[in-house]
Amino acid sequence: MEALYSTTVDAIGGRDGAVRSADGILDFKLAIPVELRGKGGATNPEQLFAAGYAACFGNAVIHITRNRQHKIKDDDVDVAATVGLAPNGAGGFALNVALDVTLAGVDQSAAEAIVAEAHKVCPYSNATRGNIDVALTVRTR
After folding, report:
1. What is the CATH code of the structural domain delimited by 45-140?
2. Strands 9-12 and 27-29
């Protein structure tokens, strides 16, 4: 399968290092969160993953409604992604995700159907399925 898009980000120094994309648009320091006994004050991998998943899932919602009578527009979808890091019981760590999706202009039943379909097409959902617990909450406004 040929990629529609690819990017490269270089991480130096692990969780207390820095990240920089090949094009230089993403360029900042990382820090271990205070909650993990770090110094905090900078972003971390879980925040970056949450941001990517939230944005991608929101776009999946928009994508699946493009050819429908009622289209979900950019301002009609809000996705709050919560990413947790926990011990996996085998000496390593695991992620868990909660997606709180709010849609405007549709009723609760339609919103739930749209979110379920988006969860099937979102690349992040497909990558995490079977590997990371993902809880979905759907609201309307």
Report:
1. 3.30.300.20
2. unpaired
